[in-house]
Amino acid sequence: MSVKRNSVTAVIFLLCAAGIAVLIFLPSAEKKPQERHRTRLIVPAAADDPQSGPLFLEQMSYEESYSLKAPLESGELALSALNIDFDNDSIEEQIVAFRSQTGVENQVAITLFSYDDRGRQYRRLWNTPVAALTPGTVSLYTQDLLGDRSHCIIVTGMNTQGEHIMTVFRNDPQRDSSLPFAIIAEIRIGGSITVQETERPLAYQQGIARGQPFVITASGHDGASDNMLDRVEIAYTYNSARGIYEQSSTTRVPGSQIEERRLREILTGDPKNFENFINDLWYHVTPQGTIDRGQYLYFDPEKREIIFFGDGTQQVFAWNYSNSTRYGLFISSQNISVTTLRRFLNIELESLDSISMRVNEDIRLKIGLSASWDGSYRRAGAAVRASVTEEKPARPYTDAVYDSSMGRLRFYANGEYELTSSGTISKGRYAFFRTGSYDLLELRPERGANGVYGGENRLVYHCTGMEGGDASESANLSLARVRLGTSGIQEFHDAPIILTKAQ
Predict the structure, then answer these.
(1) How far is residue 416's CA from residue 426's CA, in Å, rounded to a whole number?
(2) What domains does the chain contain, in order, with CATH numbers?
(3) Out of 67, 200, 272, 421, which could bridge 211 as a Cys pair, Cβ 3.0 to 4.6 Å?
(4) Mean pLDDT score of the chain, rounded to an integer?
(5) Which candidate, 485, 431, 487, 482, places its Cα nearest to that of 454?
(6) CA torsion angle for 11, 16, 21, 26 (degrees, to 10)?
(7) Beta strands in 229-312, from DSSP E residues, in sequence order
(8) Are 384 and 376 in contact (CB under 8 A)?
(9) CB burial string 447-458: b at 16+ within 10 A, e below
(10) What is the pLDDT of residue 37?
(11) Among 345, 294, 310, residue whose Cα is nearest residue 435
(12) pLDDT tens track for 211-245
């Protein structure tokens, strides 16, 4: 009996030892990076970058914390990155757009990091330069342009001549590892470039059939005309036999006749001149030529803000970066509340009272807004602006003092606030804004010795009691804590905070 017991004990000991050896020496599935498969973006700043001022640093503090899959070389600075599973093997590859600080000045390139099963780490497999040279304008995203569910990498940006450039790379399933992507389009024009997305059939949505390739259009100045505002629109369609996009049609669009001296004043190459020109309220013009007062833009270069209003929803975007184009302005902006939502605006002059705009969102995230912002906009007159202010002011800033259970809250007209509680003063920035039928207040506490705002301590409240969207007209406000995210507005169900205007 004792011999039998000893034999069983020995067998159990050997099985335990074998299990420990397996855990130690065999690669664990958890050692491979199994991240969520969605596109994410980073926009770091260089120490010598002219954008790295206080506003840019503030916007940087809102970006999601993110790391590259592998380090770049010395002298290379990452501009943006996205993760995508090209091989459908549950392990993401990473595409990184970066700027080389050596060699060709401001040279921008993209590179591919892919996971090496043998070495159990990411390796840099491939890189190639792109024609975009201005770092603040570079946008990187993927899209199924061809309707075959392949991932096309789209890089857009501007060069030093003020031209817009779009380079499209196609991922080839049968690719050579040394050349994983092929260029299927590289378009440049002194204007705007847009992917014309059309609705694809249900069979495509269900994975049964292919979809129609999207058309790419480029719009710019008509070089055959003496009028600077005469335009030409060029369409590019995909040639499946040659595997590239080719020019398929050209349409000439006559522009307004404006005195050349006035044109040069507006389009002089200094971004501030065009910023001052668009400093106004602009209504959307429908394809039928009528004004749509339910959709408008307000550009405020002094406060570095752009307000979008459409479908009953208002969003405020921080005006991060401006770059002059040949016939207008390129703007990079970022939503002040949903900071992963970034918009790139290409605005061009149509007349002294109208502009055209094309919008690109490199992160395909839409919250509460279904309106398309592409199209023409007409300047609102003073009387119209006054009536709109009476109807839907939704002013982001106010100048008022309120007492509450959390202390005395002082709002300043420059967008800053002070909260005094038990002798302690905390500071930060704030903004009133509207999403759908909700009036909201966001508080962004100051943190750190360098005065950078926001991050994980941001507070968003549903604000009720506002008179016509203007907090300064309200004697009492009620704040209910909410979370604003991709699924909309979520309530915390905390006790409301009552603000009573101080006498």
Answers:
(1) 11
(2) 30-253 (no CATH), 260-391 (2.40.128), 400-501 (2.40.128)
(3) 200
(4) 76
(5) 431
(6) 110
(7) 231-239, 244-253, 281-285, 291-300, 305-310
(8) no
(9) beeeebbbbeeb
(10) 31
(11) 310
(12) 999 999 998 888 777 777 788 899 999 999 999 99
* CB of 301 closer than 8 Å to CB of 276: yes
Instruction: Find residue 238's DSSP bridge partners.
Output: 245
Helix (H, G, I), strand (E, B) or coil at 203: helix
Do the Cβ atoms of 374 and 360 come closer than 8 Å?
Answer: no
Task: Please provide residue 88's backbone torsions phi and psi, each rounded to the nearest 5 degrees.
Answer: 55, 40
pTM: 0.56
Any idea which residue has 């397996």 for tokens? 22
Greater pLDDT, 135 or 18: 135
Amino acid at 276: N
Q: Pairing between strand 488-491 and 476-485?
A: antiparallel
In the numeric block, which tokens belong to residue 404?
């509450």
Alpha-carbon gap, residue 283 to 354, rounded angstroms:
9
Give the whole-angstrom CA distance, residue 221 versus residue 134. Answer: 21
Question: 3-state class of 334 per DSSP?
Answer: strand
CA distance 164 to 216: 13
Determine the pLDDT at residue 260: 65
**Mean pLDDT for the stretch of residues 266-289:** 84
Please state, in angstroms and rounded to a whole number, the distance separating the CA atoms of residues 382 and 376.
Answer: 19
Integer CA distances (angstroms), 237 to 120, 141, 172, 222, 276, in order:
41, 20, 19, 20, 37
Exposure of 475 by Cβ count < 10 A (0-12 exposed, 13-18 middle, 19+ buried)? exposed
